[in-house]
Design a protein that fits this description.
- By secondary structure, this protein is α+β, with helices and mostly antiparallel strands.
- Helices cover 25% and strands 26% of the residues.
- It has a single domain, classed as Peptide Deformylase (Alpha-Beta Complex).
- Strand 4 and strand 5 form a beta hairpin.
- It is globular, with a radius of gyration of 16 Å.
- The protein starts with 26 loop residues before the first helix and ends with a helix.
- It binds nickel (II) ion.
- Nickel (II) ion binds next to helix 2.
Length: 183
């Protein structure tokens, strides 16, 4: 296992459409996923896509921390989830704006509209394809990570760039907005 170097916005690997994985059960994919999990934990991320570690293949790892799923109506997946060749289908047109950061856009934060509810299917490391429905943070992290497989970073999904900035500034501002609501 190894901690891998994370590509930052501007690197061409983040702009490319990643390749389908022909065999999710291959030892090379198992080794890649182990390294991605270690890298994600080391960087304190909720998710990581293979292009972020300079591997242009359709592989994603993520987890949904319990505290991020409190408002979700659908059950959150327990533990780590590995998605190989994932495909997303939005369930309805409804979108929710929420804050996102990205290990490839370090120090920044933005408010991004995402489909509120999705269905997605993907192979696991055993090669078996499963389908899940997701809402809340779960739906957001899956859409964010799968975008990486198509060369899309979250700022490209934003509709209001005044909501993009340095994380410490935005958190200050976001807290101020909450305080203003309480006043
Ligand atoms: Ni990201």
């Amino acid at each position: 296992m190894a901690i891998l170097k994370i590509a930052r916005m501007g690197h061409p690997v983040l702009r490319r459409r990643a390749e389908e994985v022909p065999d999710p059960t291959s030892p090379a994919i198992h080794a890649l996923v182990a390294d991605m999990i270690e890298t994600m934990h080391d960087a304190n991320g909720a998710g990581l896509a293979a292009p972020q570690v300079h591997v242009s293949q359709r592989v994603v790892v993520f987890h949904v921390p319990a505290h991020r799923a409190q408002a979700d109506s659908l059950p959150r997946p327990e533990g780590l989830v590995v998605l190989i060749n994932p495909v997303i289908e939005p369930l309805g047109e409804d979108r929710t704006v929420g804050w996102e950061g990205c290990l490839s856009v370090p120090g920044m934060m933005g408010a991004v509209p995402r489909f509120s509810r999705i269905r997605y299917r993907a192979a696991g490391l055993d090669g078996i394809v499963t389908t899940r429905e997701a809402d809340g943070f779960h739906a957001r992290v899956v859409q964010h990570e799968c975008d990486h497989l198509d060369g899309v970073l979250y700022p490209q999904r934003m509709t209001d760039m005044t909501m993009f900035g340095f994380a410490d500034e935005m958190q200050k501002r976001f807290a101020e907005a909450q305080n203003a609501d309480r006043d």
